[in-house]
Amino acid sequence: MSVTIHEAKNLLALDNGKSDPFCKITGSFTSQIFQTKTKKKTVSPIWEESFAVYVGDLEESFTLTVKVYDRDFVGQDFLGETLVPLGKILVSENGYTSSNWFTLNPETQKKKGLVVVSQPKPINYGSIKIGLKYIPLGHSRGIILKSDPDKEYKFDKVLGKGSFGVVRRAVHRGTGNCYAAKIIEKRSIEGGHKRLLEREIHVMSRLHHSNIVSLEACYDTPKLVVLIMELVSGGELFQDIISRNEGYSERDAMQYTRQICSALAYLHSLGIAHRDLKPVSKSIDLPLFTFLGEPTSQ
Known about the structure:
It is built from 3 helices and 20 strands. By secondary structure, the protein is mostly beta strands.
């Protein structure tokens, strides 16, 4: 889900009729905390900043909290907050987009597991304009297909095997381009494993980075789920490390470290953590580094 903090108006003025406001965004469903830039000496700031917030399995009770603070020399002063319910997003199967003004309220206080709202003071805390954009799984790129993958691809040699399926080379019948096809039997992914697969597809469909393997398409058939991914043929980074008799030079280590950091910085900017970062989950396709292990969201 994309959350955009557009602007605010009529904020409290704490310093000579002006404030230096910034926002913190949190959710009841995540430990992530997002923060806007600070705007100087204004009570009507314009941010126009967007944040990618991972929602996961959206529930009706989920809420988003946006708090506005005034930055000063020794810390920050509270200016107001608003609670944005996300349950209404569930009613739309094709996605949800909105941009609305919300009234800023006094700060809530948590005490012994209960949420107690502070007694409102007879003052106006102002208002803030917040945009929401939510695209359900598969709609962002039209990536989930119900057609027969055998009509589009020829599947030949096995590239690898896992607990829930096999990876084969897939040759597109029209273009001759080669891909890696992760073929998973549905009967092996019931319950929690099914949710993990759905999350993997959702996350990978959002990623567009030169150092992260891309998901080209996903086929949902009665018996199988087939993920068509970029084919990377350079071999594992781990094998390259142990096969070099002369060891890795500083230049080589710097090259791969830079590309790893670039990919991780991109993932983190989307609120995604790669929780299996090790040399055997990487592939070398010189001169670029590519992830093979799928990233997961938190």
